[in-house]
Amino acid sequence: MKVLMLGWEFPPFISGGLGTVCHALTHVLTELGTEVLFVLPKVYGEKEHHDKLELLGANEVLLTKKTRRFKKNVSEKTLTVLEVDSFLEPYQTELSYDQKVTKYTEKLDVLKELQEDITLGRFEFSGGYGKNLIHEVARYALIGVVLARNEAFDVIHAHDWMTFPAAVEAKKISGKPLICHVHATEFDRTGDNPNHEIARIEKYGLEEADRIIAVSQRTKDALIHKYGIDEKKIFVVYNAVSKEKQIEREHIKRNLKEKIVLFMGRITLQKGPDYFVEAARLVLEKMDNVRFVMAGVGDMFNRLVERVAQCRMQKNFHFTGFLHGREVEEMFAMSDIYVMPSVSEPFGLTPFEAMLYHVPAIISKQSGVAEVFENAVKVDFWDIQKLADSIIDILTDKEKAERMVREGGKELDKISWNLAGKKIIDHYHQMVGS
Q1: Residue 45: left (phi > 0), alpha (psi -120 to 50), or beta?
Q2: Residue 121 belongs to some domain of the structure
Q3: Is the pTM of this model over 0.85?
Q4: Within this chain, do residues 61 and 176 fall inside the same structural domain, yes or no?
Q5: Same domain, yes or no: 333 and 388
Q6: Domain range holding 374?
Q7: Using 50, 70 and 90 to split pLDDT, how confident is the model at 250?
Q8: Burial per residue of 38-73, b for 16 or more beta-carbon CB atoms within 10 angstroms, e otherwise
Q9: Residues 400, 253: one domain?
Q10: Which of 7, 174, 358, 377 could make an SS bond with 159 (beta carbons 3.0 to 4.6 A apart)?
Q11: pLDDT in tens, 336-359
């Protein structure tokens, strides 16, 4: 069994949980005997070497040139026919490229037909999530066409909306079955205020998929209700956590006498960092031997720094910025409580990661991990009073904290990527009829 896997993140490039999940899942699939060609916009650092894993940057893929025409359809009406060899020239400037592909990218969601070949060259990709993301998704879709023609594989497995157009084109050309793996929807990321272009791309991919893997029942329900996807083709496979760690909690020296309450994640609307700040304010009204730490970056960063200053919490509140590798482990190991107050979290790996370091967790009821993590305190993200009370309760009740860690550890023993990988391989075999 060989899988053409399309993703947008892979270590060492990680901006959130997607890269972590793709890395863990890819490795367990190969350990279970599945060959994986993992394609991402560009490979950072040295490529990993594994008998059954090949990492390929889309910027390495050669393109060839003839005329290729696109038919686009909206509401069952053909709007335009475009010749694309005018913009398929490698190493253009950003400005010239944008001018040539604007008309195409505005209607990417209705990309329908690709024919023939193109001129020899390569595309460049930033591989990030910047202002040109839609343009990069369009280029990546064309890479999917080339791969479908040049590579041998049995199944296409695409992670999140950025890869869906490429996956659909690969399916059309190769005739191979497509799994779309949904780690988060556009509704999760934007607090139910979606970017309509992204939502259309997401829906298009989900409709074209032969099977969909959702990371939680919460995500499955969202796909049914937000996009009208047939529930019969959606299957839940929960994430797990990699249990290797470099350090132990007892080896960490703490320079602070105060208790440490940690938020770690993107400082964006979806993750609920503002609720963490407001809960901190309420806790500090009753306790002064607590330090709150917000680890991460995001578009709400400056606003929350200002809010902390407005509440005069600077002495008890710290912003670390983005943490890498061992820094993440050290931060978990130093903490007394981990808080994940997400507004909408399809799954959420970080409470499991906190538990690896014997840190009790408070999580929002609006998270997929709440479906499987029994020994965490669960609160509604908006209930800052309940969140504050829960923080105080755990900090002042040593026996409760120890019990949460003890029972949570038992839960962690039952969770593995190996189990998730076996379920996904079963889906592969069902789709190819083997």
Answers
A1: left
A2: yes
A3: no
A4: yes
A5: yes
A6: 249-413
A7: low
A8: bbbbbbeeeeeeeebbbbbbbbebebeeeebebebe
A9: yes
A10: 7
A11: 999 999 999 999 989 999 999 999
